[in-house]
Design a protein that fits this description.
heterotrimer, A alpha+beta (197), B mainly alpha (191), C mainly alpha (197), A: 197 residues, alpha+beta, five-stranded antiparallel β-sheet, 4 helices, 5 strands, B: 191 residues, mainly alpha, 0% strand, globular
């Protein structure tokens, strides 16, 4: 009996120590990890979409609460004038979510470009969305009222052959971006106006 | 249905856990000298991996994610696997002694078999659904068994062959494994 | 004291160098040695876990009841592995992405549990640290060496800079899965040739 109690006590104390230590390390590294994700995962996508801006969109960013979700907007400036925003949405792919960065021009309400950030699609098929320029370039220049669904669902986007579900996932993410942008436009304009210098 | 078939083929052949993902190599080299032990190990892995895959998926989806304590994933998964192995061992000993006689000695080894832990982590990283996790756990384990048994067959031969002294045992084993991995390489690009 | 410390430390560097002499923990050895950088990064992470878990196991060796010792060791090891995971995510993010699933898998690396059980549970904290450090550095050197062979032959570079000149045709076989097995097997053979002491 005594041995039993001893065993339980030792394991409980160990687990408590472990949980406490990990929680502390987790809190200590949280901010740093966020920044690293920003720098290595989001930054390449943002640079690809906004290749000719005069500022650093990673620095000029603001957050808007959309229902219970926090969205981060990155602002691109041309000649010091903030005229474009980029934000991330997601759509359901073959296995798991596909993250999509969408850049939108505030003046013309046109999509500047999109870029896949994270996905876990079957290598060789769905993962082409990341490096198939023909597929993602279809989104460029689309207005907010265009139907960005794939053609099979009555929209205007050609799918990548052999990767219907992934194509639909990217489309869905882009459509979500249209909705969010249209809904939050007043707030976005207010925030970006403050960034003009 | 077709999607599950593709997943199964990918787990057994294309991304074979031993030969393409390098998980579970310690038992691969340790238990492959005899066909009998290889078969026993393969069976034990299929058994434990399917159970572990299901339990860790449920834990992650309904406990770790809602509570936002995903950083405890490594810790909880290894504890689940270790206690699961203990439990399976006790259960088999009492109720199915015949099966225990066959698998018993391999069970403790499975706790530190990274194939088990690895597949559980892959299921979560790839964000598989419950059914996908089930299929992937089972087929990864089948792939493990297949590679192990194939390898044991070749290895029984190398033991009676004349191998230069410095190459003997583990060394020739690894080179042989490389050749088998090369044959599995042919499956690349199939899915 | 100092003498035995040196002895415990140096045995990990040659006489019992993992994974060549002690054939344990092969999975990370085969999987992450596509390049020198990955190999050494993995080695350092493993060394940290080895030293910390050896120290704690040794300190607690009279407190932990024999029956639950493996469970206790696993909790200790898993805790330090998670610490490494978080720290790498925060400060070496690209390496963290490259090593991926193999960082949490340090937890099932047989070397770590093996040293806790075979050495740290029977020896003083100071000797245990020396043992962990020696084994860890030996492991790091092995991974670095294997990485150097595979990266130079398979990719024509070491640490990213070309070593054989522009004429060199890399044989990609070496950086793929089969090459890993063959290369490790041949290096093991070479170690056997040089002779066991």
């Amino acid at each position: 009996m005594r041995e039993m109690i001893n065993m339980v006590i030792v394991l409980t104390v160990l687990s408590a120590f472990s949980g406490g230590l990990l929680a502390a390390v987790k809190t200590g590294t949280k901010e740093q990890i966020e920044q690293q994700v920003l720098k290595f995962q989001k930054a390449p996508a943002i640079k690809q979409i906004l290749s000719d801006v005069s500022n650093d969109p990673l620095q000029d960013r603001f957050k808007i609460m959309d229902n219970d979700q926090e969205l981060t907007f990155f602002v691109g400036k041309h000649d010091g004038k903030p005229d474009s925003v980029i934000f991330e949405t997601s759509g359901k792919g073959f296995s798991g979510d596909i993250g999509l960065m969408v850049g939108i021009n505030i003046d013309s309400d046109e999509i500047i470009g999109v870029c896949v950030t994270t996905h876990s699609e079957t290598p060789g098929l769905g993962s082409r969305a990341k490096d198939d320029p023909k597929f993602v370039s279809q989104f460029a220049g689309m207005k907010m009222d265009k139907n960005l669904d794939i053609k099979k669902n009555g929209g205007e986007i050609d799918i990548m052959s052999g990767a219907t579900i992934t194509s639909a996932g990217v489309s869905l993410a882009a459509k979500k971006a249209q909705e969010i942008y249209t809904r939050l436009k007043p707030e976005i304009e207010k925030q970006t106006a403050q960034m003009a210098n | 249905m077709g999607d599950y078939f593709v997943l199964a083929i990918s787990c057994i052949f294309v991304n074979n856990i031993l030969l393409a993902q390098f998980l579970g190599n310690c038992p691969f080299l340790g238990t492959s000298k005899k066909m009998e032990t290889a078969t026993g190990m393969a069976m034990a892995v299929v058994f434990v991996l399917v159970l572990a895959g299901i339990i860790t998926w449920i834990t992650d989806t309904y406990l770790l994610k809602p509570l936002d304590i995903e950083f405890l994933r490594t810790l909880s998964f290894i504890l689940i696997i270790a206690s699961l192995v203990q439990f399976v061992e006790m259960f088999l000993k009492k109720s199915i002694p015949a099966l225990y006689a066959g698998l018993g000695i391999f069970l403790p080894l499975i706790t530190t078999n990274c194939a088990v832990m690895g597949v559980c982590l892959i299921n979560i990283n790839e964000e598989y659904t419950f059914m996908q996790s089930l299929v992937s756990s089972f087929t990864y384990a089948v792939g493990f068994g297949l590679a192990l048994i194939l390898f044991a067959g070749v290895r029984e031969r190398t033991i009676i062959a004349r191998v230069p002294k410095p190459l003997q045992d583990t060394s020739i084993g690894l080179v042989t494994a490389g050749m088998i991995a090369l044959s599995f390489f042919a499956f690349k690009g199939m899915v | 004291m100092a003498q035995s410390m040196v002895k415990e430390f140096t045995k990990g560097l040659w006489a019992e160098i993992p994974p060549f002499r002690l054939v344990l923990g092969l999975c990370p050895v085969l999987a992450v040695t596509k390049s020198v950088e990955n190999g050494i990064g993995m080695g350092i992470a493993t060394t940290f876990v080895l030293v910390c878990s050896n120290l704690l196991v040794s300190l607690l060796r009279s407190v932990i009841p024999a029956k639950v010792r493996i469970a206790a060791y696993i909790i200790i090891i898993a805790t330090f592995v998670t610490v490494v995971e978080l720290v790498m995510q925060a400060y070496t993010y690209p390496l963290f992405l490259k090593l991926g699933i193999f960082i949490p898998l340090i937890v099932v690396n047989c070397i770590v549990l093996g040293r806790a059980e075979a050495f740290a549970s029977k020896n003083s904290p100071v000797l245990s640290i020396a043992d962990g450090l020696g084994m860890g550095i030996g492991f790091t050197l092995s991974l670095g060496a294997l990485g150097a062979v595979r990266e130079s032959l398979g990719n024509g570079t070491i640490l990213g800079s070309p070593v054989f000149g522009p004429e060199f045709q890399p044989f990609t076989f070496m950086v793929e899965a089969p090459g890993a097995f063959v290369c490790l097997g041949l290096m093991l053979c070479l170690m056997n040739l040089i002779g066991k002491k």
